[in-house]
Amino acid sequence: MNGPGFLQIAIYLIALIALAKPLGSYMARVYQDESVGLNRWFAGVERLCYRLSGVDPEQDMRWRQYAWAALVFNLFGLLAVYLLQRFQDVLPLNPQALPAVTPDSAFNTAVSFASNTNWQGYGGESTMSYLTQMLGLGVQNFLSAASGMAVLVALIRGFTRRNAQGIGNFWVDMTRGTLYILLPLSFVLALALVGQGVVQTFNPYQTVSLLETSNNTVDAKSMGLAPSPAGEGRGEENQTGKPTKQTLALGPAASQIAIKQLGTNGGGFFSVNSAHPYENPTPLSNFLEMLAILLIPAALCYSFGLMVGDTRQGWAILAAMTLVFVALVCVTVPAEQRGNPALTALGIDQSISAQQAGGNMEGKETRFGIVNSGLWAVATTAASNGSVNSMHDSYTPLGGLAPMWLMQLGEVIFGGVGSGLYGMIVFAIVAVFIAGLMIGRTPEYLGKKIEAYEMKMAAIVILIPPLLVLGGTALSLMLDAGKASIFNPGAHGFSEVLYAWSSAGNNNGSAFGGLSANVPFYNVWLGLAMLFSRYWLMIPVLAIAGSLAAKKTVPVGPGTLPTHTPLFAVLLIITVLMVGALTFVPALALGPIVEHLQMLGHH
Amino acid sequence: MTSKPVSTSLMDPHLLQQAIIGAFAKLTPRRQWQNPVMFVVYLGSILTSVLWLQACNGGGEEPAGFSLAITLWLWFTVLFANFAEAVAEGRSKAQAAFLRSAKRDIAAKKLDEAKYGSNYSKVAGSSLRRGDVVLIEAGDFVPGDGDVIEGVASVDESAITGESAPVIRESGGDFSSVTGGTRVLSDWLVVRISTNPGESFLDRMIGMVESAKRQKTPNEIALTILLVALTLVFLMAVVSLLPFSIYSVETAGSGRPISVTVLVALLVCLIPTTIGGLLSAIGVAGIGRMMQKNVIATSGRAVEAAGDVDVLLLDKTGTITLGNRQASGFFPVKGVKEAVLADAAQLASLADETPEGRSVVILAKQKYGLRERDIHSLGATFVHFSAQTRMSGVNLPGDPNKPGEPCRHIRKGAADSIRQHIETQGGKWPAELKTLVDDVARRGSTPLVVAEGDKALGVIELKDIVKGGIKERFIELRQMGIKTIMITGDNRLTAAAIAAEAGVDDFLAEATPEAKLALIRQHQADGRLVAMTGDGTNDAPALAQADVAVAMNSGTQAAKEAGNMVDLDSNPTKLIEIVETGKQMLMTRGALTTFSIANDVAKYFAIIPAAFATTYPVLNVLNVMHLATPASAILSAVIFNALIIIALIPLALKGIKYRPVGAEQLLHNNLLVYGVGGLIVPFIGIKAIDLFLVAMNWV
Q: B374-381 long-range CB contacts below 8 Å, 24 or more apart?
């Protein structure tokens, strides 16, 4: 990596951290029911929402009520997306006359979008009508993100309230989060993206004549136009068998891309996601989309600090997240920049120069290069976003290890909007527990004693994702149905399966590729994994919120373990990394690590 | 001072022998089930035992020798954990046996009527019930816990406290309780029994120290949950390795899948066996350490809560100050020489045998060289302190050699009594005396006014003497994050002065039982944990309300019932040691958990390359310790894992040292020692064991 490479990473981080405070304090005001600038326009809409749906915004819900509301609401969202897909052939806004989606794929996609995973077993432009994209997937992009933030806010209330029964009102948190945070941010970002050339239209796909006849489909692929086996983007061919025309997929993309990035959804409008030139045309659009991935998760840390009355608490968590993020960027980007020793052995120039990005450019867009591809890969897996601007399957083993491991850490390094921070807070509870014992006191975090009940719930939150990932991977490798989809047998095939389960089991949604996952086996099982890892984590988190809210607040004294110090941030990092490492080291050893050692062996 | 009733040395051969027997006795599934982490090891041991038998018959997946070695060491792991628990229990059991020796069946003289002189019938002590009244005469053993309702006697309590000096027990007041098993040395007592058979203090103590159904403390439960969660994660990581390995062998086309024996070995190495094996020993040892300090806790929960205490209520007298006040200065009114005042004060105090009175004589001698005079040659008559006059003093006849000198009437006493005394004789109360009196009071001392005839001479300052070293203790407590509050019956002025001198954070002056209770409730409502000591019946409500309540053994039965700990030495400062012991218990658990988890890193480096040596030889790059063979690597890790439990038993029993240096620093130190240490130690240990195994040609 050279100077400009470092500079790009630095600018990205500075922009991210700089925006955390203003956006964070804005969001804190929204959730604390304080007035924000947008009240003038939206307060009426907000009231109308409550009146139409018969919600009493003053009602304070106990955690069980809150959890029920969240689950039922998400279930209806899931059903809506499922039905839209199943009946899209008879519904309007389907200019390409796409058929109804198969039941297993529709189930997988419905779960995927409701659970903020956005794993995509399908190719967007060849499967989903405009209506399904907008009313189903687009709407869920907002609602799943708002759900995550609502649960986080409820957990924060658990810390701030004392001797209280309620943890807030789910409907109010949902409405305010969507109306005052997600919609305005998406609107601004969508406009900016349209300015950069991202498409936004209801027109049908366009067939255009090629300026230059292409010799093979590989060229078309490298342009990001014809990636899917389903074959859209395939054009007419001339007599010699060479394509002369090409179909260009279009659609209302910009509006969906904005929220897919901001809401850590990651489900692309087009199959190749943000590698597609109509989804992510320029380096500037790339920067904005990449920034949008981590923007809300980072800013929520500041909101958290503000809401618990000590911004240092938020900064400590943000620092812990950022440190792990930077460390893993420093694994992936240099690993990619070093390139493939097997190619070096063949005399291929992989060095960095004015003419080329150098390094391992397989599966990467030339307009983004190594640094912006690697940075995106780490950001999208750190957050549970899962959108891609390069193909992770083609990364070097170490370059691909970092994104995979970030998901396996439980999506707490930034993580999903809301869900990342509530996951991290659960890790903080565990860290505080061990640290508290080590200083000879019953552990307490932010004035709340951490006792058996909280540990039980925290244990569930930490247990479920590894169980799903390891259990699912084991299942896939034992059954023929699972092994049938592996195209690269060996360590890399193993990595692909492990990656798929890591992604679904932690609600990330990015795919390593290489694994043909749009088959009933993976659609159903990965769908179930996404379902469990989202909601079985949400429920115990809300239970912790309820339990904490009912407790007294212990005043801070000199014997209290400070949780805003660098030492605590380090302890938090160690806790996250130890749990992640100890759980997945054997599996990683058989996948990426063996691959890496074998690759060096070629050298 | 205090003779420890039993040997508590770790190396006591008898205790060790008992512990080894206990280790085997605990191998029943029911006992193992109580400790989920060790239960997994237990099941693993059974599984590998079966696999070894299979290997002996030629059907195993590993050579029989390797299988046997792993199996044996897994069983050792289980036994070592049992042993740790047995050692800790053994020490407590020895103490319980000693206590039980005090609990012989004592013949009791049950009185027909609740008064001395009534008829009595001889019954067995064990048949006494609450409310029965017994007579205990010199030489008799006290048949059960109770309150003295009549009589005064000296009692030998060494059976309970190990303290050989007898103590006085009398009806009324704060020294009215007697404990079953102690012996009356002189005089007699009439005692109302306060407990039913099997509920006595001794019974509770014995039950506490040896109960097998020991209740887990709240933090222990929370920690167990965390350990179980980690165990499940590792179980999944290990179990899933089998299909991963089979798939890898299929696609790599070389090697053979990982064997179940190796998987079990890996699992046992990864799950937190170090803390799992020592967890219950730490809890038992915590209560045992309290007992060594002569404190009986009625539950482990109370010991643990002691570590969490935020506020400490301390009685001024006896805890912060010495029980007695001492004269520290003479302040004459205008026109009176200080030496004259000192002389009068000395004369008035010559026959005063109270410590305060003695201290006046001593001060007069130190300051003015006034020798103690022979009171008889002076022909003086002494006026003793009486509740009516609230003064004491001396009447001296006139000197026969100096005719005309009148006889002298010297009095000393509290300001208002002397004032009344002077004014009734027609004397005048000088205005400046009030200033003098107030000045003394403001310094936290007690003013004593001296008058001769109808003329006030001045004031003696009686100073409360703050115990040496107590200020440093309070500084320590502050560093621990504990707020100290002094409780005193003194007025605010005096209380404030002493509080400042002793360095307590706050004080409650003119304390009544209601005020104490209210103070505790207020702190609890703010989320703080309150500890206090007490001995009197009027302390009982506050003791019952406090989270950690230490009753003095010398105190009343009501106080002991209300508290959750009893200090056999009746030393109020011991609360500080109790807090430290509570903290040590938590810290030891936290430190060993950290150590246990940190150990896993090295074990992975040992086992992963070994387990996949045949499938992916490239993984040998991870064999950073350069362990000789796959078999030696796995065996070394398992042996290390078992031996570390034995190695850490002393630490678990003694507890890690607590230093009051503030939370951040403490965490930093312990992370360094047990976290970083836990990372490094197993690398060295496993390598050393591997070298040893190779040197002995065992692998």
A: B375/B350, B375/B351, B378/B347, B380/B347, B380/B350, B380/B351
CB-nearest to B590 from A434, A584, A601 is: A434
Inter-chain residue contact B619 with A451, CB threshold 8 Å: no
CA B647/CA A206 separation, integer angstroms: 75
Which phi and psi (to 5°) does residue A120 adopt?
Answer: -120, 110
How many of the other CB atoms lie within 10 Å of CB of A159? 23
B386 is in an annotated binding site: yes
B387 annotated ligand binder: yes
Phi-psi region of B187 (alpha: psi -120 to 50; beta: other; left: phi over 0): left
CA separation for the pair B466, B381 (Å, rounded):
35
User: Binning pLDDT at 50, 70 and 90, where does residue A132 land?
Assistant: very high
Q: Residue B456 is which amino acid?
A: A
Closest CA to A248 of A220, A267, A273: A220
| Neighbouring residues of B65: CB distance < 8 A, sequence distance ≥ 6 | none
pLDDT higher than 70, residue B569: yes
Q: What is the largest CA-CA distance in chain B?
A: 129
Contact between A304 and A314 under an 8 Å Cβ cutoff? The reply is yes
pTM of the model as a whole: 0.85
Alpha-carbon distance of A375 to A378, in angstroms, equals 5
**Mean pLDDT, all residues of chain A:** 90
CA distance, residue B654 to nearest chain A CA (Å) = 15
Closest to B344 measured CA to CA, from B474, B450, B475? B450
Place of tokens 């195209």: A487
d(CA A342, CA A395): 14
**Predicted confidence (pLDDT) per residue in A322-374, tens digit:** 999 999 999 999 999 999 888 888 888 888 888 888 899 999 999 999 999 99
* Residue B265: closest CA among B640, B698, B673: B640
Residue from the list A430, A474, A554 with its beta carbon closest to the beta carbon of B226:
A430
* Continuous H helices in B108-217: 158-161, 201-210
Q: Which residue has the higher pLDDT, A489 or B238?
A: B238
Burial of A163 (0-12, 13-18, 19+ CB in 10 A): exposed
Going by C-alpha positions, the residue among A128, A105, A86 that lies closest to residue A519 is A105
Q: Which residue of B has its CA nearest to A554?
A: B527
Task: List, by residue number, the catalytic residues of B.
Answer: 315
Confirm or deny that B486 is annotated as ligand binding: no
- Helix or strand run (H / E) with residue B449: strand B446-452
Instruction: Look up residue B357 and give its two tokens.
Output: 């009175």
CA distances from B678 to A443, B596, B681 (A): 22, 7, 6
| Alpha helices by DSSP H, B537-676 | 540-545, 557-562, 574-611, 630-654, 663-670
What are the phi and psi torsion angles at B150 (to 5°)?
A: -160, 145
Task: Give residue B182's pLDDT band: very low, low, confident or very high (50, 70, 90).
Answer: confident
Instruction: Report the C-alpha gap between A134 and A131 in whole angstroms.
Output: 5
Res B471: pLDDT: 85
Residue A262 has pLDDT above 60, yes or no: yes
**CA dist., res. A523 & res. A527, Å (int):** 6
* Residue B161: pLDDT band with limits 50, 70, 90: low
